[in-house]
Protein 1
Amino acid sequence: MTREQIELGNVTPHNVKLLRHLNNVIFPVSYNESFYKEVLKVGELAKLVYYKDVVVGAVCCRIDTSNGARQLYIMTLGCLYPYRRLGIGTRMIQHVLKLAETDGDFDSIYLHVQVNNNEAITFYKKFGFEITAVRRHYYKRIDPSDAYVLQKLISHKRTANEGHKTKENKKKF
Amino acid sequence: MPSSNPLPPKENALFKRILRCYEQKQYKNGLKFAKQILSNSKFMEHGETLAMKGLTLNCLGRKEEAYEYVRRGLRNDLRSHVCWHVYGLLQRSDKKYDEAIKCYRNALKWEKDNIQILRDLSLLQIQMRDLEGYRDTRYQLLMLRPTQRASWIGYAMSFHLLGDYKSALNILETFLDQQQKGNNYDYEHSELLLYQNMVIYESGDLKQALMHLESCEDQILDKLTLKEILGELNLQLKQFEKAAKYFEELIRRNPENTTYYSKLIQARELTKPEDIVQFYLSLADMYPKANPPKRLPLNYAVEEQFRNLIDNYLRQGLRKGVPPLFVDIRSVYTDKRKVEIIEQLLLQYTDALKKIGKFSENEVNNGPKEPASCLLWVYYFLAQHYDYLQQTEKALMYIDAAIEHTPTLIELFVTKGRIYKHAGDPYEACKWLDEAQSLDTADRYINSKCAKYMLRANRVKQAEEICAKFTREGVSAMENLNEMQCMWFQTECALAYQRLEKYGEALKKCHEVDRHFSEIIEDQFDFHTYCMRKMTLRSYVGLLRLEDVLRGHPFYFKAARCAIEVYLHLFDEPLKDENTEQELNMENLAPSELKKLRNKQRKARRKAEQENAQAAQAQVKREQYHKSKQQGDIEADAPQLDELVPEKLAKVDDPLEQAIKFLQPLQNLAQNRIETHLMAFEIYYRKEKILLMLQSLKRAHRLDAANPKLHTCLVRFCRVLNQNKDGLDPIVKEVIEQEKVLLFNNKDAIQLNRDYLDTYCNSLEAVLEGAKMLYYLNPKLQSTALGLVTNLDNKYQDVNIKVCKNVLRSLKKGDFGQCDSQIEEFMTRCQTLFLHAVDFRSSSSTSVCESNHVPPDQDNYSSN
Ligand SMILES: CC(C)(COP(=O)(O)OP(=O)(O)OC[C@H]1O[C@@H](n2cnc3c(N)ncnc32)[C@H](O)[C@@H]1OP(=O)(O)O)[C@@H](O)C(=O)NCCC(=O)NCCS
């Protein structure tokens, strides 16, 4: 399996419905209109993944500044079942890590997973994420309803004298 | 010959300025100068000035005034070549070419050596294909301008087009001899030599053509064409070794061109399938990246060898994920054995991929797994495979499996729609195409396909809206599509309207398509000068020949057939006057119902008024748009054709004459299609033109004597003859007697029909026509006739949706008299045979289906 077969592409108003199709089959929860409106505006934070020219996965993130820190929150990251364990997840998470790194102004990356989602937990751990909290009844309509918070701290947040560069980069997303 | 009314120097100078302004498109200034002359009372009626004023006005779009001035000018100076020339130009701008030619000829009477007029005349002559006239004019031009290259070429070409190759070649040779010999040959010289070679080739002297080309090889810059012609000439001259060399070289240049391979096979004189397969295999080794040497042997190989080759070919395509793999392979499906082999392989792939991720379970231990998308492409292929074999349920099963596997592959939804289309449900089909379209709204191909499916489901408005995503903004999509000559769309629209019984609308679309063909022929005009100047003579001759057969294009056929069918229908059942119709109905109504009806009518009227208002608004916009366009492009102000108004078109007085207009090009250019002659028969049958009916029948008979539709024509013709036995002109009678032997074997209608039913008793399509005629000839035999077409037992080998639909249509049309209960039974029977076909559902369930246009349920393909 060569890496060239896996490529990232943009989410656009023309193909956003593909993202819906993906999310509908990959995730047990369904996302509302505002989710799909938002992903059209976040640029590099939302990406489709192509495997041999077919869309098979997607990642959507958001910048979260709610609790005093600047965090990159992964809303969804998933891949169609027949295409798992081929490095597609890796490609997506690498994209996210790189974004965080080039931005240089994030404290951490985090996400929620259902507590029984062992595949995802193994997957994220492999990329340095750790379980930092449990959120009871995080999910409303699915069972189990508890979620772990998986988090990865960004090791080398840039120092102040590099600040101007940061601003430039931020504009991109 | 000078004008009969010469101007003094001052006015003459002004006149010259008018001419210059005209050439430089400074029309307003031109009018100013004209005014200066004409306001002088001495020259108020000066012919040439008046004419030029008219011509200038024409360029500003003031057509009526233009004619007025030009004609007045001409009346005042009938012996002025300027006036005649101007009148010709005016007519030409209105596409009245015959009239324009007459004017130019008059102009030349008074000034026979005027180069400009001669040139203009020659253009019209070639446009109108007055080849002899063209030759004479080109001769005069050559005499007047013997040093110009174009004079020689034009003169030579006139002979070429007339088929006088010898004269054409003499002229070309004389011209080339005068050319200075040097070694700075340019592209134009090279093209001229290739043109010369074309003329030699067409004269039939292949040897000479080969010698000619070999002798000037190094002067020809288009090396590709050079090699292609050299290869072809050697091949036709049976100099196989030399030919083979050229085609080997050509394959090396472009190993994707399939014709080179078949030429090389001819050159190597390979005829046995084994040898041909071997040939391709060796080339596949030489060009491992090329497709033809892998694909083409599949047409020749059989059994085990075929299995091995197709196995490899399929695996490669599935691995790569080549979407059109099935379409690429489809042509071998004519061979049943090959279909079996392909099916076996694909089922094997499915199992093995599911179990171990390989194409075969024997390969457990060797090599890496196949890509994860392989199974998807296998499902996709199988869905198309079973669809092709009309096994709808299996096709649906596999396409659903594919969608479950990868719900993001847009092609899957297109295929699902296509399966429903083939299964007879255009509404469901349309729904899936709409889904496909919504997944990538930037894909124009899918967008067009979706529009087409909407039209097949008779949803014209929706189709237009979908197309609007890609048409220009600010104009209605319908209008923009017309402007872009988007003929597939317009023809499908016409067919939808025909099904919806909106005959006027249907005709409008058909006429629009017809006009596109006229426009394309008009557009030729610019090339007469352009090609001559650019020396692209071979393409030019190719263009002229294409234009000559333009309406032979299938697009024209389809639109013309629709128009003819509609006109025939309008002849058989002219549109009734709506008011009298309603009066009649009202007489039989109870008061309460009458009230309801009145209410309904009122609403309908209000709606119609609103629609009219909207239409009027749209019309205003349209006119503004056209105006703005005209101002931008004054030169191209084509004459405004009559607007096509659906209501008027549907209320046609002479439907058969109109139908003939659409028919005539087909009779010239589509004489190999039997439908042409069958349609001709239907028209002349209604016009009661016995000899023309006979002519159509003879032509159809020659193409396919067993054609079912032809049979009904023959039977009806037989009966017409019988009925007119005594009234016929003796000469006509004699002609018919002669032809009867060929057409009917001297049988009478009843015998003819009986024999036909006997001979083709295995074909429902044929029996349908025979049974129709059974009832037609003797209504007492209704139940026999009905029995023949409604008992779908296994004696018929062609019980498919299409034929059954034709049976149903015929039953409903009354071809078998009153038969409501049989219709119902027949529909029920067909419904069990064709589960998805909407035509056999009772009318209540279809209407549900039609309105049931909702996007597909998302739960349908949630997986794992
Ligand atoms: C989690 C997920 C995105 C992983 O995607 P993927 O394309 O299969 O991941 P990769 O192939 O890149 O796997 C990278 C590594 O993660 C680990 N991993 C991934 N899935 C695993 C599994 N099911 N079991 C064990 N390890 C696993 C492995 O170490 C793997 O490396 P390897 O294949 O070389 O052993 C995918 O399983 C998924 O889409 N799940 C459903 C959606 C979801 O739960 N998303 C998380 C919430 S946002």
Protein 2
Amino acid sequence: MTGIGFRKDFASEFLEGDKLKPSFIEVAPENWIGIGGYWNKLFRKALEKYPLYTHGLSLSIGSPDEIDIEFLKKVRTFLDENNAKVYSEHLSFSKCDNAHLYDLLPIPFTQEAVKHVSGKIKQVQDVLNRELVIEIVSYYTSVSPEMNEIDFINAVLKESDCGLLLDVNNIYVNSFNHNYDPIDFINKLPLDRVRYIHMAGHQKVAPDLIIDTHGEAIIDPVYELYSYAFRKLGREVPVLLERDFNIPELDELQAELSMLEELKNKELIQYASA
Amino acid sequence: MQVPDKTYELQSQLADYCRTGINSLPEDAVHPEHVKHYRRLVYNVIEDSLSSAYPLTRKLLGQESWDQIVHEFFRSHKCRSAQVWKMPGEFYEYISEINSTLKEEYPILTDLLLFEWMEIVVFMMEDIKVDYAEEGSYSEDRLVLNPEIRIIGLNYPVHLKNASKITAGDKAQYYVLVFRNPENHKVQFMNITALHVKLLEYMTEKPRGFSEMAAYLRSVLAPANSDNIHAELEQFIYKSVEKKLILGFSKI
Ligand SMILES: [Fe+2]
């Protein structure tokens, strides 16, 4: 199953034509909650054809602030009403001191943060009455780390007992920016927790820095890492292609979806026959 | 839930830097040279959202003043909305409340912002279901008003004239009806009078019939101005039906 991020930039062309044929769509609840008129009409039309996966933006699970329960309840209603298959969010923070920043900032890899974030994930799972699937985000610097990224992530996953969104591009970006082996990183993750996979393109802005832009095509080393992830997983996991900027012709996006499907199937067939 | 002190401190420092761009960088960043990208990415989201919400205001102010006010807003204001598309509404509120030389230089500023923001509010507002019949009698039946509307009051005619051409001499009380066409979902604007405002409020309460509306108008108008009520009301209804401001006839 390969899906596409449902973006306003191509919503109408996508729904009217047949160039792009995903198995599901993904949206950020924040962009569609409480919206009527033209966009709601298109969203309803999309939901008639495709199952919905969701990927939140503003929950700010890693924030020092309390969870915004009122907002979370709106998310719950949205997920339930639209029969969302998955609710995923970022292992980062986007709100601090009661101010939203609308972007993903890195949580310090500290023992305190493990406890705090895990408690909040549990709280969210309780309110939503469903599993939260958290995504490992791209980051450009860590701040005063007490432990490695992998140890931080694994501690949070263990303590909160939540699902994992494996964004293969993010792992590639992080391994480049922070100079580690992405294969080794994947090997250390609890892959039985993976519920969802993201794939995307990125941009190198300096010799030692890649920014996770979702504005380019997926590059070969990320495809290779993706194949490796399925070799290890050995089972079906829904895969999403994220493209937020610099949107190409829809047949180019379809070519990426087909490639993702093909590479995954190749690995799963080999896994089954081995 | 207890907020851990040290971790909180680190996060607060980073967030502060992203919002203001002026505080010192977090001391313990492993790659201090990369921290500026966070500031850039965060600020871009804010600037992009505000630029696409307020193209007319941005054009009026020019790039330099625009950047300055956007920067000041993001530095001083804590954005409350979890939904980024609603954030420009906080920008309008912020500008309305502050004392700024920019407001003296551009007296139409808050009106222009409100006008642009209302287009978004009405375009995005949740669908409001309303029951009505397509067929009926304009003289006998009660008329159903489109519920997807907002009315705003302005001091300058930013809805009638190009913002750069508006002068102090244009200052007056204006009312604008902003409504969404239920078929094509486009937002339309209508310059209306204070009397229209009263009439629309009256029609919003519940569907009203022609004679009921005429009687209401007579009750709020001085007798000398009541002569043409019937003709004017007919004209208003005709125009409203045409523009889908009146949707149809009440079934009950
Ligand atoms: Fe992702």
Protein 3
Amino acid sequence: MAGNDKDALLNFLLRMGDSALILGHRVSEWCGHSPVLEEDIALANTALDLIGQTQLWLEYAAEIQGEGNSADDLAFLRDAWDFRNFLLAELPNGDFGRTMMRQFLFDAWASILLPRLAQSSDPRVAEIAAKAAKEAAYHLERSADTVVGLGDGTAESHDRMQAALDYLYPYVGEMFLSDEGDAALAAAGVAPDPASLRNEYDALLKRVMNEATLELPDTRFTHSGGRDGRMHTEHLGHLLCSMQWLQRAYPGSTW
Amino acid sequence: MVNVMARPGADQIWQWLDELPDPEIPAISLTDLGVIRDVAWVGETLTVTVTPTYSGCPATSIINMEIEATLRHHGIENLELKRQLSPAWTTDWISDEGRRKLREYGIAPPQPAGGPDRCPRCGGTDLERISQFGSTPCKAQWRCRECLEPFDYFKCI
Ligand SMILES: [Zn+2]
């Protein structure tokens, strides 16, 4: 594999793995704190699926990187600037409504991307995506239902969901940005150009927000800097402190 | 002279694996669950191919450990466990025997329609979903409006 192609594939795998990892960690923060037991269990299971997907993506990333790292090394021993997750994933949970809105915005993207990746010319990408696509479809069913239930719920829940959407929407666009590496991967049939997913995503969002009686912000402005590692939010470092603490304090410990 | 024992055939190995319970739903075996995809001798090494149910299912590592312990107990020394992601595991691979055992155990087996067909306790058909997720990644929580009991439903994927 030529150097540029290798870099593009590695970046892509880190974006997939890191976004799943960081969102999975965020969602796991709800464990024991959710509004009701069923939601607690659902959030924990969603986090578990995401972290399982992380394992598969980062394992492949480590192989492509070829520096003898494991998926765990990548997850627990890199610092903030080496992470390639979308900023959306690292934002603090906020209230339950904001967490579920973020989950929906992410699930909608994943449920459109993963079935396409399942057709990837890279067989390893294809098999990971085929597995993850089933889980993403299931997650989307729940997060979309919850967004509709709370959006079209009481005046209080509606206002909170609208506030969540207003806060999170300016982070959505980053999932559809493309660079030269993405173009190379698209040309090689490894992954679709992220920008090519936007129309389908917009249609899905429009449908669900209509049903949820929520108004999509009328702007295309997007924060960015996560997928290329240029600039994460201040929240990522705090998240890593808690996620990586054990491996940093007791290197190599296992259980 | 060393007495070389004939190595056990695949049928024998499947039989041993049939006795291994799923770590989280011990009512059914790993072979009922359909996670063991292949058993084959490659040279002197026995290769067992295992597919995960859900990518993050914590039982996956326990399942591998149980397979390894059992086969070693039966004297197999050269053993390789292979993870196979593709084709992705589907509830279609749960055996009929497994479905029957699930129902007897109180877990409604997966249905293509996406929900349980009847209450595993009373057989009632007036059912409602409580939560899309349950006590393990593979289950959801439902309730029967006839006997009013909640029950687990094995999600269909
Ligand atoms: Zn009943």
Protein 4
Amino acid sequence: METSTSQSTADALDKGGILKNKIKVLKKMYPHTRSVLLPALHAAQQLYGWLSEDAIEQVSRLTGVTTADVKGVVTFYSLFKTKPLGRHVIYLCTNVACLIMGADTLEEYLGKTYGISHGETSADGRFSLVIMECIGACDKAPAMLVNDDCHFNISMDNIQQIMESYR
Amino acid sequence: MIELTIDDIKVKVEKGQTILQAALANNIYIPHMCWDPRLKPYGGCRMCLVEIEGQPRPLASCSYPADNGMIVRTNTPRVAKLRKTMVELLLIHHPLDCPTCDKAGQCSLQDLSHQHGPSQNRIQEEKHSVARRTRNPFIERNQSRCILCGKCVAVCWEHQGVGAINFIGRGFDTKVSPAFEEVLDCEFCGQCVDICPVGALGNKPFKHSCSTWFLESSDNICPYCSVGCTVTLDTREGKIVSTRGIATKGVNKGDLCVKGRYGMDFIYAENRLKKPLVRKNGGLVETTWEDAMHVLAVRLNDVIRDKGPGRVGVIGSPKFSNESNYMLQEFARKVIGTNNIDSSACFGFSKVQKAVSQVFGLSSLPISLDSPIGKGAVLVIESDITSTHPVWGLKFLEARKKGSKIIVLGPRETKLSRHSDVWLRVRPGTSHALLNGIMHLAIEGAYHLKNHMSTAATNFSELEELVKGYPPGRAAEIAGVDTDEFIEMAKVYLTAESRMAALSLGSVENNKGLNTAISAANLVMLTGDGPSALQMPADYANTFGMWQMGISPENLPGYKKIEGSPGKNLFQMLYGKKPLDALLIMGDDPLSTYPDLKKVEEALRNLQLLIVQDIRLTDTARLAHIVLPEASWAEKEGTFTNAAGLHQTTEKISTPTGDSIAGWQIFRNLTRYMNSTPPFESLTALRDHLSDMPIDKGKEKWQYVPVHYEEVEPVDKQYPFIMVTGNLMQHSGALSVMSKNLSEAFPGAFIQINDTDAARLGITDGSTVRVESRRGAATVTVEVTDEVTQGMIFAPINFATARLNELTYAYEGGGAPLTAVSIQQVQSA
Ligand code: SF4
Ligand code: SF4
Ligand code: SF4
Ligand code: FES
Ligand code: FES
């Protein structure tokens, strides 16, 4: 009576066995299977866009880490998505340095322009907004990530232009 | 040894102990909430802060190692202030719903708040309000009360090896939950409930039954398996309200499994016998003890007079006390005059006894519960130890954490296979061939062992000759595993610093035979490890004791061999050509658990006199002419001997149900009705006699018994599947099915079949199937799973309703009595 996963759902998701092979490779790079968990989750997120229950079960099965443990890790880090997000994800820092330098105005702007607040996706599916803790760019505050790109020293003067580059 | 000073008291501890451990061991109390002796220190609650001379800051004593010359103060104004703040912080989000919380009175947070906390909280913040989760049979999660100490998560994974729950989320929203907020579906050991310092996890069966301060507690010994855990029973007016494990008590040191924790309500089952029953005009009718005893004596005397005492037999019970079993065999031997005495151990534990005496010359071989700890390699032979002996199974997990390599041979996925270093998925019943194969490799190549190898023991050359026939290729082929993997496994075992092999031979397990046990014994002897490296536990709470009490056609109490010819064993009593005329069955239900149901039923129906003495009206009792109600565990005093040979007393905490009385009294009275003199008039006299009873240990003499692997009932076209029978963790025979808690949670009979096989046969999960063997058929629900391998069916045997024992057979030979069956879907889910 374990909380074990059903092989069939997990297999259905990983059709070509892509994730399976990726994790196999990862496993060779780390001494403990548990260390494979984070890179495995990143791989799964990259492959599926977000981490569904099926994806979590699959990672659990492939790494041997229990589903509860995987879910715990996924919900701890805000970079892991537990629901499908828009085409582009904005990670806006609102920690002290960025806040002083006007992150709140940016948040307001994004809200007004695209109708999104933290955790939401715009109606056209173009943008999602995630409010982040410090992303380590305090000297270039305010800062944000869009997908994997960093944007520094953002202001009301350049934000529109930045957003326009993501269609 | 390390010497340090705690609160001006000089204390000594082992190196590696923490300050907290040092203090507790010396009766100095330091408040703590997130620490547990079984777990790695977590250092989360900061209640255990102490000041150490020379250190600028207070330190968490639960995770700081004690050191020589350390001067520790546990109760300075500074730590007192910090503790006060800690409690204050913990209480910010806590709902403080103590009046409706079952933990109140046993809650660490409540206690610590009283002792250390502020009377008013300076901080007013949002309170937690998380919906209660109750949709599982045993555990209610009330996460608003959780203080995030992490103990439940750690005990479930680190200690229990399950990992069903974790912290989900972050910050304020963090809660303890299974992965997807779904219904908790785990092994329900309840360890997380016991360990929770607050009321965030609760036992559903005991919910709101009584405030803790009205409870009385007493310790008792768990009546289920042979580990013999100490359970602390909280009672109100003699009724069991809840069950706990306490870290300082018993062989289990606080651990309990699902049966020990939730199964004690079996004594309140509706079908408990309240009065003696005697068959009149075809039906069983209630009567008085005087009448029942009188009728019994007359009818039994008739059989003895007309047919002779050799036509009468008795069956003892591995679930009843030493006192009951001893008096039963006294009655059989002295009053009836027969050695026809046996028990269900005939299908199981007697194999252990035979192997041990044939190979080592010993009369018994108790296990040691700590045996796996510190062993280089632990070989588990087709045994699901975490199910059959759950708390002992935890020792295997602990051993692995401490560096032992766990090697598992077996077709079915088990908790140990999941936590193993090497797992060979052998075909059912074939591990014996692999054991011979390991010996082959040892003799051929294990040069490092040569100096230790017991080559001088009798029959060494015969063994050498026999295992020549099991080169790796052949052994692996029989077992259906890869040759290289087998060689690799053997290497891990043979090259380990120290070794041990473990196998259970329960009376309903059919995947190992006498020869498997003998072969394992040969192996530990060959590698020079000797009998202590072989761990073959008795199955039920008192299987070991029952055997010692002389419930055997061959042995008297204390393992003394019978002079002259032995009595009839179970095979002869129930399955032979000339079954008996009268049978007295104490505390067992052959109809629901013995193999080859039809034969058993025929033998029982043909009896001129069937007497059943039990705590409930079993299927077998329904066939009886006379039924005697025995008081159950916790309704009388008794002694159980666990698998390690430890005698432990079970206490009386409830009044006996109806007119039921203790077994020893039944036999004393019966002896009087039979016009004999009872050997003991009082329980004290009986107990004194038992504690002085000489034990014949046997003469240790090592002798190899070379045995070939044998397939007893091969599969064929018509019956292409091998049916393996066994126990579940949550159910193990008669007692657990009486428990309402366990039966509601794990209700019906089912079998498991491999998913590939199922797909091929068009069998779907949850559907009803007909399983058929050469002897009979049964209809059960099927679970489709990859936990079992192809070609195999796993059938838990405890559910009498399924009559799966109609398919199996009684086998006296040395092989594993596996059953060949066919399977067919009759109704979809
Ligand atoms: S009952 Fe046991 S297995 Fe289930 S969550 Fe609690 S500790 Fe884990
Ligand atoms: S549920 Fe209990 S044991 Fe688990 S983290 Fe919360 S307070 Fe600790
Ligand atoms: S391990 Fe055995 S003795 Fe211990 S609680 Fe479970 S059934 Fe009872
Ligand atoms: S506070 Fe925004 S990057 Fe550090
Ligand atoms: S007991 Fe030491 S920090 Fe909790």
